[in-house]
Amino acid sequence: MKVPAVDYAAVFQALPGAVALVTPQLVYADANAEFLRLRGLAREQVVGRFVPDDHPEKAPAEPLLLRVLASLRQAAGTGERSIVALQRYDKEDPDEPGVWHERYVNMTNIPVFGSDGRVALLLHRVEDVTELIRAREVALTLQESMLPALRPAGRHQAAVRYRPAAEALNVAGDWYDLVDLPGDRIAVAVGDVVGHGLPAACVMGQLRSALTAACLIGKGPAHALEVLGLYARTLDGAENTTVATAFIDWETRTLTYSCAGHPPPGLLHRDGTVEFLDQATDPPLAARPEHGPRIQAGAAFGEGAVLALYTDGLIERRGEDIDTGLARLADSLARHQTDDPEALADAVLTDLLPPGGATDDTALVLVRL
After folding, report:
1. Contact (CB, 8 A) for 333 and 266
2. What is the per-residue pLDDT across 67-119, written as a single tens digit (0 to 9) for each?
């Protein structure tokens, strides 16, 4: 079968992404239709133009031009691709002169080699990610609106943290809550809905509200999770949600807890030892074929101890045993045990989350007992 000749110029123009060809001397050699559309320019306004002269009229965009030039020169000099990630690039409205719209772009500069092995051209690719960034901001705003603001735990100190996954531009189903109970008592909970995106966040919001009500009317954490499990069976997407709940009683200096398939809470004692509360763990919500009662256990605490509830994004890593993550958490809590809860929460996240961010969402609640 004869292979038809390929018109690469036509392919270049038909590419759905915005691309231009730049010489090592930083002169535009060509630009496809999408690049011209994105820039709002005619071909004769681009081709043959010196890239350093190609800056928008708006002065704040000039730092972006400097980054682009540095990236192009790097690609030309090293023969390796260079990326200019997530840059703001405001664009003037063609119908309303003087009105500028906020835009965000990613840019990649890829060397193209000639027959002599030298860089002959640079493929300059521009990706408009404005809508993606806006969608992420809306989603994160929605998730934050579903997570409660930290309320005083009576006269006791507490801190909460939520960190979205570094690899995802959407939200997930992690949540936390603190609920005032009669007497000198509170209920603390964290949970994790399976999945990501707005559907998981919506399920999370419904489960969090339901658990708050169950804690207020329930006889303890096991009964609260039993009620929540019944509700989860009626809610699409709630299956296999994991939850940990603890009721803290400062009058008796005891806490009772129950976990539905969730990592165990950590209890940091004044002597620096960390006890993981793993004596009351049942399957996740709605995971059993038939609904059944749940178990709970208790633990005593001394003044100044710290209770830590968290989701698995804090401790789990790919290819690593969960015990390694638990040991890392225990070590961090012990080393920073004299910190107030706010400083302790920051220290734990710094110690446990990878430099580039975790691959899963993370919720953390710390309560000074």
Report:
1. yes
2. 888 889 999 899 998 888 777 777 767 777 777 777 778 888 999 998 898 99
| Cβ atoms 334, 273 nearer than 8 A | yes
Q: Given the DSSP bridges, would you call strands 100-101 and 91-92 parallel, antiparallel or unpaired?
A: antiparallel
Cross-strand pairs, 28:
22
Among candidate residues 79, 82, 80, the one with its CA nearest the CA of residue 119:
79
Q: Decide if 171 contacts 143 (C-beta within 8 A).
A: yes
CB atoms within 10 A of CB 11: 10
Q: Which residues of 170-208 are buried (b: 16+ CB within 10 A; e: fewer)?
A: bbbbbbbbbbeeeeebbbbbbbbbbebeeebbbbbbbbb
- Rounded to the nearest 10 degrees, how much is the dihedral formed by the CA atoms of 267, 268, 270, 272? 140
Cβ-contact 175, 207 below 8 angstroms:
yes
- Cα distance between residue 105 and residue 129, in whole Å: 5
Distance, in Å, from the CA atom of 110 to the CA atom of 78, rounded to the nearest integer, reads 11
Q: Is the pLDDT of residue 140 over 70?
A: no
Stretch 218-224: mean pLDDT: 89
C-alpha triplet 20, 26, 27: angle, nearest 5°:
65
For 170, which DSSP code? S
How many H-runs (helices) and E-runs (strands) does the chain carry? 8, 18
Average pLDDT over residues 169-191: 83
Is the Cβ–Cβ distance between 296 and 258 less than 8 Å? yes
Q: What is the per-residue pLDDT for 57? A: 47
Assign 60 a pLDDT band (cuts: 50, 70, 90).
very low
Q: Half-sphere exposure of 155 toward its Cβ, with a 13 Å CA cutoff?
A: 5
- Phi and psi at residue 183, to the nearest 5°: 80, -165
Angle made by CA atoms 157, 159, 160, in degrees to the nearest 5: 150
Eight-state DSSP code of residue 188: E
